[in-house]
Amino acid sequence: MGGERVFDVVVVGGGHNGLTAASVLARRGLSVALLEASERLGGLAASYSPWPGFTAPFGAYVLGLYPKWLMREAGIEGRVRLLPKDPGMTVVLGEGRALRVYGDARRTSREFSRVSPADGEAYLRWARLWGALGVLLEEVYSHPPLSPREVVEHAYRAARTPLVGRIVEEALEAAQWMLTAPAARILGEWFESWEARAALVEDALVGEMAAPSTPGTGIVLAHHYLGVSTGRRGEWAYVKGGMGRLIHALAEAAREAGASIETGARVSEVLVENGRAVGVRTWDGRVYRARKAVLWAASIKTLPSVVELDRGLARRIGALESAGASSKIVLAAREPLKPAEEYRWLGEDLYTSSVITMPGMEYAEKAYGEAISRGVSREPWLSVNVLNRVDPGLAPEGWILASIFLQYTWRPARSWGEEDKSEVAERGLGVLESVFTLPREGVRVEVLTPRDYEGLGNPGGSIFHISMRLDQLYSSRPLPEASGYTLPGVERLYLASASSHPGGGVSGLPGWLASRRLLEDLGVEKPRRLSLEKLALKMARSAREMLGR
């Protein structure tokens, strides 16, 4: 089948970043075609039906990084309903012990005081710090990347003005070492009890092949403290109807604005004439011409196979780290998951929050080491979300549906077989039974591994496209010469996926920033500049608000 169609912009990749870009550009009056290789939009933010009547998340299961202002700009405000998690986490520590982390810092402080009065006080200072740093990160994430040193130095100079107080100075002094340090060191300096440290370390590890002692886990910790989707900093939420509802809303908004969206349209070639991207060709011979630009909203690692790049650049792209470190168990059962006797005191918190199994940072270190040596941790740590307890429509009446994120599973994505999935299920459910008594009958289990994630166009199986390591962040994401959302050697080819700054997670920001760069290059938008004084004032206000809820 052949044929040729002409648009202003062709977007390749129908994940949430591609859909965000398509909607934003179409709403600005450009004609847009979005092409998705698979038959399902959404990538790792999609929902799917593992069994008739069930709606489960393929990858992402909670929303926190997608800003409210971007929902308005992408046309999905009012189309998506969020169900906040509070407590956000219930961290089970073993032997009936647990700590809960709430959206209310003072409530979490009282919780931590149960194990250490000093840690209860420390948490108030911790919340104030992240109230300020959250604003800094939000600004960094919504602008093209600067080096971390530039950001801190410029903002620090602004903070020395009479407009702000010591709160921002303290936050910026902390940022200079915390954003690159190991999580173990950060938490060890802030909290005296092992329980408090264990309760907070999960956010530094999720999705990465990293232990608490790994340098750079501080930036992953910071990434997950951003939480801005609900309007309350640091709060995360379920999407009513499942994560796929966000994808549906984005596609709906894009189509209403005039975008053409096609699935099953695998691109075989980016067409380049006189050094400029002018369209794409699909495997079945269709040609989509782009008068103004092509936006690549798929993994950067898939580009060298469809466009001729400088040899050295192609080699460096191929060398980017993208191995998956996590798997998922989707579990359905006709009977409720009953809490083990020692955890019954937690009540509904076991069903309405993310239940993290983390009996100490040493536990995570051991799980990490086991995965390095044998591929799967004998005792992985889990994040358990009983989805239909909060959103009943996700499963038939009388059933429970749980999404169980599991880490670590460290093996080349293509080497995963069915026997490996059986081991993941055995290891994961073994840990789950330390918290819940599992039904013996009427249980359904499906396991998703990095190989399944690779099948969605993520070479290596990383849930972040490429790993969120220090050498693959900010002005080095995906590479220093490609950090401005364009590639050297090919004009008007823009990088709009999680492979670009600010990286993984369901934020829509890489797609939006690439779109902004295109609009600036077209002269439709003026370049955005950080106002450092306004930034410092926002940091101070947010720090105070974290304690004033």
TrEMBL record:
Record GO terms (molecular function): oxidoreductase activity
Gene3D superfamilies in alphabetical order: FAD/NAD(P)-binding domain
Coiled coil: none
Domain Amine oxidase: start-end pairs: 18-507
Superkingdom as given in the UniProt entry: Archaea
Subunit structure, as described in the record: Interacts with COX5B; this interaction may contribute to localize PYROXD2 to the inner face of the inner mitochondrial membrane.
Annotated function: Probable oxidoreductase that may play a role as regulator of mitochondrial function.
Name assigned to this protein: Pyridine nucleotide-disulfide oxidoreductase domain-containing protein 2
Native organism: Aeropyrum pernix
